[in-house]
Write a structure and sequence with these properties.
The complex is a heterodimer of chains A (588) and B (113). Helix content of chain A is 72%, strand content 1%. Chain A has 588 residues and is an all-alpha fold. Chain A starts with 12 loop residues before the first helix and ends with a helix. The longest helix of chain B has 32 residues. Classes of the chains: A mainly alpha (588), B mainly alpha (113).
Chain lengths: 588, 113
């Protein structure tokens, strides 16, 4: 819960520092020029991480919330910065991912390396993204969040086109234009909210807002705009090319952190601004879109030839997973409750941020080593690049919900909520989502672990420091379930203790074997398994079934191609807005 | 019809036209112009919101004006960034199509025509 914030709390200045320090880094880097840019970044990163750690430490001493009034003016006149448990967790996650990416990129983006503009831009954009994200996590009113959201987009778009190739520029332009469409919808909602209630402060709005038609329309517009920026299916036209085209370090940031920014604002809007207005039907609709994202994203991911595109589509599926918590968070009186479901969703967000960033870094190392990233061409990678393959494996395990990963704990929490609210259908989706995740992880590992036909000749050897940094991030994601979450998120030990035991092991085995079966059935590439005698008999037996599944998969891929056309995606955007508004009207 | 309703209808018309242009125009430059039209509609909406404050007897509510100015700055930077990307794309690919197929014919010019 956010505090009403009538005065600045002790330690509130940490929130200001968390924004000011990265911004100061950006300005300093501009002033000092490209020779010192890396130095500035390496000064700001430890300082910023210390601030995030300090927020984590101070927060429990202040009853779980911090506030800072800019210029000591209380809202509605002034602007407040606020942090609660979820902000602190996200601040810390961002700091960790940024640290790792900075270490990983230290060798790639040296000031003297070939292209002079790219390193300069990369380090500045990294700090700018950090500043924008921190502003999103501590911003106390909807307009500050809008400005932060725009800053985030403006820093993220150039990261996509860092290499300056035509297709990455095109991906960046598509991303920018669609994101602008989303942000203008958000701004329109903000205008309506201000017109109705005369304030944009989140806490004041939560007291004043009622289910008037204007407020419902505003909420529908803002939600749709944020969905477009989060790339929830079917509004994902920009995500695969943008995330797959960027350099590895940039992809890790884009996929791990940037999409979480708009998602966090969405949480603020639904859980803090208007917990009672959303309506059960609208939440079901959001989760249904999430389920669609899981199925379509995973099936298309299994059909990708390039590893980076596979990981990008897996991001699409994982974003869908994040939206499953909305219908589970309703309490008996029809209010969205900041309880266990929200905790599970946030834990899933943190887990995905760390695991997916590690995964992109690992894939980047494989790309650098092999000179390509075709799934079928990475046989023998386990021997040639053991560190990268291990990172990919650990990150994959964390994502699919292997104990004691954050995703496993999140899944357990959400499953408990499905039982509590009696929504068994979402339990099914949660399990199937885990299986699909296992499918593409198993697929890649099967190729990477199988012996090569001829000795692997590496184009370049990725530096050890980069590999270790990525591995540390993957390990971090896999150990999230063991951390003490109580001071920040409402997670009970009952859920944590359920992580280990025979039941959990059975669930895990079902997930892994189901995933392997899905990988065999849906991936059109020749399987490494098919070269052994036993494998051949199995493949022969399931050939007709596999043909049907692959046909179905290609149909889904075609559908995805249609949805990623500009006009189809924009019309889906309008339809989503209309449907959300209609569902909210019906509910109230 | 009061002036507030007239301006409200104008804002709605600008938003509608901008949305239509953003969705249907294939050329990126026209999309950018359409985005600006859409933005203007929203800024006008903010202006009307300020006038509603005036009806309550507080002169003209200054907060929406401050918000609009910030919004205009954001929209301006967005436009600049989009135009810069568009120019780079034209120099790199020789065309400015946004379709997912690889850019093929160097036919259109950066003005989008």
């Amino acid at each position: 819960m956010l505090s009403p914030a009538l005065e600045t709390s002790a330690g509130g200045f940490l929130l200001v520092l968390s924004i000011v320090v990265p911004v100061a880094g950006v300005l300093l880097a501009f002033a000092l020029g490209d020779r010192y840019v890396r130095l500035v970044a390496f000064t700001v990163v430890p300082v910023g991480s210390t601030i995030a750690a300090a927020v984590l430490l101070v927060l429990p001493q202040n009853d779980g919330h911090l506030a800072y009034l800019l210029g000591a003016w209380p809202p509605p006149l002034g602007v407040a910065l606020r942090a609660d448990g979820s902000s602190a967790v996200m601040l810390a996650t961002t700091a960790i991912v940024i640290c790792v990416v900075a270490v990983f990129a230290a060798s790639d983006f040296r000031p003297a390396s070939g292209n002079r503009r790219a390193p300069f831009a990369f380090w500045i954009l990294l700090l700018a993204i950090w500043a924008a994200l921190n502003t999103i996590f501590v911003g106390g009113d909807l307009f500050t969040l809008y400005v932060a959201l725009e800053l985030l987009t403006f820093a993220a778009v150039p990261l996509v086109s860092l290499e300056g190739r035509a297709e990455t520029l095109q991906a960046a332009l598509r991303y920018l234009l669609f994101a602008l469409l989303g942000s203008i919808l958000y701004l329109m909602g903000t205008a309506l909210f201000y017109g109705l209630y005369g304030t944009l402060d989140i806490v004041l709005l939560s007291h004043r807002a009622s289910a008037e038609p204007g407020a419902l329309i505003a909420a529908a517009l803002m939600t749709t705009g944020l969905l477009a920026k989060t790339a929830l299916f079917p509004l994902h036209l920009w995500l695969p090319p943008a995330h797959a085209g960027a350099p590895a370090a940039a992809s890790a940031i884009l996929s791990g952190l940037v999409v979480k920014g708009s998602f966090f604002i969405l949480l603020r809007l639904w859980f803090n601004v208007r917990p009672g207005m959303s309506g059960f039907a609208a939440a079901q609709f959001l989760a249904a879109l999430g389920a669609g994202a899981i199925v379509v994203g995973s099936i298309v991911a299994l059909r990708q030839e390039r590893l980076k595109l596979l990981v990008a589509y897996s991001t699409l599926a994982q974003i869908g997973y994040l939206f499953l918590m909305f219908p589970l968070a309703f309490n008996a009186s029809g209010q969205l409750e900041s309880g266990q479901a929200l905790a599970g969703g946030l834990l899933q967000t943190v887990s995905h941020a760390t695991a997916k960033a590690a995964m992109f870094l690992a894939v980047g190392s494989i790309y650098a080593g092999f000179g390509h990233d075709r799934v079928t061409g990475i046989r023998g990678a386990a021997r040639a690049l053991p560190l990268s393959v291990m990172t990919f494996a650990l990150a994959g395990f964390a994502l699919m919900g292997v104990q004691p990963g954050g995703a496993a704990l999140a899944k357990e929490l959400l499953l408990q909520e499905t039982a509590r609210t009696g929504q068994w259908w979402w339990a099914g989706v949660l399990q199937v989502g885990g299986m699909f995740t296992a499918a593409y992880v198993v697929l890649v590992l099967a190729h990477a672990l199988s012996p090569p036909d001829q000795p692997v000749a590496l184009v370049a050897k990725p530096p050890r420091s980069s590999g270790l940094a990525a591995l540390a991030l993957a390990l971090c994601s896999l150990l999230l379930g063991l951390l003490p979450w109580e001071p920040y998120l409402p997670i009970t030990y009952a859920a944590e203790s359920k992580l280990f035991g025979v039941e959990a092991l059975v669930k895990l085995l079902v997930t892994v074997f189901g995933g392997a079966a899905l990988a065999i059935l849906l991936s059109p590439w020749p399987h490494p398994l098919a070269f052994s005698a036993a494998g051949k008999t199995i493949m022969h037996l399931i050939a007709p079934l596999r043909r049907t599944c692959i046909g179905l998969g290609s149909l889904v891929e075609t559908g995805d191609g249609v949805l990623r056309q500009w006009s189809t995606a924009s019309i889906s955007l309008l339809l989503v807005a209309l449907l959300l508004a209609a569902l909210m009207f019906v509910a109230n | 019809m009061s002036s507030v309703s007239v301006f409200g209808l104008c804002a709605a018309a600008a938003v509608g036209l901008g949305l239509y242009g953003l969705i249907t125009n294939p050329q990126p430059l026209r999309k950018i112009v359409a985005f600006n039209l859409l933005g203007s509609g929203v800024f006008l909406l903010f202006g009307i919101v300020g006038r509603r404050g005036a009806a309550a007897g507080v002169g003209n509510d200054p907060v929406p004006q401050a918000l609009v100015i910030t919004g205009i700055v954001v929209a301006f930077s967005a436009t600049a960034l989009a135009i810069a990307l568009l120019l780079r794309l034209f120099h790199a690919a020789g065309s400015t199509t946004l379709s997912s197929r690889a850019p093929t014919s160097p036919r259109s010019d950066p003005s989008g025509g």
